[in-house]
Design a protein that fits this description.
Elements lengths: L4 H13 L1 H7 L2 H9 L1 H6 L4 H79 L15 H4 L11 H9 L4 H13 L4
Helix pairs in contact: 5-8
Length: about 190
């Protein structure tokens, strides 16, 4: 699958370019040096060129840091949603497995009940008596035992619950679509 130019550009920037400003801006000495630039702004308030230069630097740093924080917050939100979806998928798989195991257990119990009934008939016939079999209650639909019933087992259940239960952000939705395109499952 051919990547679109913007996807290639974003991948290149994310891999080779953007980590450097992040490393620079999150380096503790750069943070301290930037904060300490407030002192010359106050002390040399009469020197317009220095004040404008320092102010421009501080404004640029502010925009860069804000952009980086927003980028990482957006990435984190998309990642958390992916994790939640994976956990929900795992929970559904586990629930289906437990339900299947429960059904097998009920089938085994039904078979045992029938065998015990046959043994009781055999013992009764050996003593010259007749044995009347007791009726076994039919097995309940295990999907109905869940609090939400069959609805819980529908394939689009997770998506529907996420649509109803979460605050939606268009930027995060767009980012998630991009992540789904690039994932090995897609």
């Amino acid at each position: 699958m051919q990547k679109h130019f913007m996807e290639q550009a974003n991948d290149f920037l994310d891999h080779y370019i953007l980590p450097w400003p992040v490393r620079f801006l999150t380096f503790r000495f750069v943070i301290l040096a930037t904060i300490s630039l407030l002192i010359p702004l106050i002390l040399f308030a009469d020197n317009t060129v220095m004040v404008l230069g320092l102010n421009s630097y501080l404004n640029t740093m502010s925009v860069a840091v804000s952009s980086i924080v927003l980028l990482y917050a957006t990435l984190s939100e998309a990642r958390q949603k992916q994790i939640a979806e994976m956990q929900e998928k795992r929970a559904q798989e586990d629930h289906a497995h437990v339900t299947e195991m429960h059904a097998l257990m009920l089938q085994a119990m039904t078979t045992q009940h029938q065998e015990i009934q046959e043994l009781k008939e055999l013992v009764a016939s050996l003593h010259g008596k007749t044995y009347i079999r007791t009726k076994l209650e039919p097995i309940k639909d295990l999907r109905l035992l869940h609090a939400r019933g069959n609805e819980r087992f529908e394939s689009d259940d997770v998506d529907e619950r996420m649509k109803k239960g979460l605050h939606h952000n268009q930027l995060a939705r767009t980012l998630r679509q991009d992540l789904k395109k690039g994932s090995p499952e897609a």
